[in-house]
Amino acid sequence: MTDKIKNDERALAALGWTPFFAEQVAADEAHLTPMRIATVHRARMGAEAVSGRAKPSLPLGQKTTEFAVGDWVLTEPDTHLIVRRLERHALLQRKIEGGRGPQLIAANVDTLFIVTSCNDDFNPARLERYLALANEAETNPVIVLTKADQVSDVSPFLEQASALQRDLSVVAVNGKLADAIDALAPWCGEGQTVALVGSSGVGKSTLLNTLAQKTDEDAQLTGGIREVDAKGRHTTTSRSLHSIAQGGWVIDTPGIRTLHVSDLAIGLDVLFAEITELAPLCKFRDCTHMHEPGCAVLKAVKTGKLDPARIDRWRKLSAENTANTPQSTGARGNKTTRTPGKRR
Predict the structure, then answer these.
(1) Which of 151, 216, 227, 342 has the least C-beta neighbours within 10 A?
(2) For residue range 90-117, what is the model confidence (pLDDT) as tens digits?
(3) Phi, psi of 243 (to 5 degrees)
(4) Closest Cα to residue 273, out of 128, 174, 110, 142?
(5) Of the candidates 182, 256, 199, 214, which has an alpha carbon nearest to the alpha carbon of residue 171?
(6) Quick count: other Cβ atoms within 10 Å of Cβ 27?
(7) CA-to-CA separations, 133 to 95, 256, 259, 317, in angstroms, rounded
(8) How many Cβ atoms from other residues are within 10 Å of residue 175's Cβ?
(9) Contact call for residues 329 and 336 (beta carbons, < 8 A)
(10) Higher-confidence residue: 88 or 330?
(11) Does 19 score more than 80 pLDDT?
């Protein structure tokens, strides 16, 4: 193996290339150039390659909406024409109300930083939606509490966040200080990819600027939260991939005001493990955990082992997930897809 090949392999690994992707490249595709999608716009895309930044071109008939920031593609060496997109090991996507299909948030993410601030923006119900999203995508979730310097005691926020899911990592930082780099270092090493999600104004762009050590000239725009209602302003308008000082990559995303739950059955089971593990102990197999005798979940609430508010949020998310998740009905070979609870 020549030094150039070794160097190229190291450079690819630093971009997030792993054996998972290498094994997808067929022998007759060895001449193609792997690129990682860094930006997606309506009519064009940007990418990162071993040779540096590049502008891949789309085959006739393909749209940019079919790609997510973080995707790996194989391109023609000379024209940078995309030959095909490689399978993803993780995909974050969300349902759009009234939309034909889900909106792609980010692909091939190892860790999802769910960013919220230590003020009125802190909302356990909203955080649970992000956690279910991360669980379903098999991406490791970490809750990042920003603006920790603006409260006298961060402990209540840490305790509430930690209680939302078993073995959940929660970190409190001041996103403006370099200390945040050390606090989040375990997830930002070489070749690792993290994505930032959360409401507008919670400090995602500030955190990105710190992690990527951006200068004033290339820093992401930042915007604060209104003191009156803790609502933020959109400062990030598109998704983009940025290098992190420790060698990893971070994907910034626009603030999400509404996160609908759909196709997240596994994600909800992981999120509410203490509830789903009790279900088999109920007297009735189809127990709704609402009023049935012999319900193990209701018994746990009565004895103080389960938080009633947590049960209420689980019921709400489970019902929403059922209502929004398409189901296939009809005889084999003649199935139709419909969404429960909605007229066709």
Answers:
(1) 216
(2) 999 987 766 667 889 999 999 999 999 9
(3) -80, 145
(4) 128
(5) 182
(6) 5
(7) 11, 13, 9, 12
(8) 26
(9) yes
(10) 88
(11) yes
* Cβ neighbourhood burial of 139 (10 Å; 0-12, 13-18, 19+): buried
Quick one: pLDDT at residue 309? 93
**What is the pLDDT, as a whole number, of residue 331?**
56
- pLDDT at residue 286, rounded to an integer: 87
Query: How many Å apart are CA 273 and CA 166, to the nearest integer?
Result: 8
**Is residue 326 classed as helix, strand or coil in its secondary structure?**
coil
Q: What is the pLDDT of residue 225?
A: 44
Helix 308-324 to helix 124-136 angle, to the nearest 10 degrees? 50
3-state secondary structure of 212: coil
Helix, strand or coil, per DSSP, at residue 131: helix
Q: Which amino acid is at 341?
A: G
Q: Residue 118 region, left (φ>0) first, then alpha (ψ -120 to 50), else beta?
A: beta
Whose tokens are 């008939």? That residue is: 61
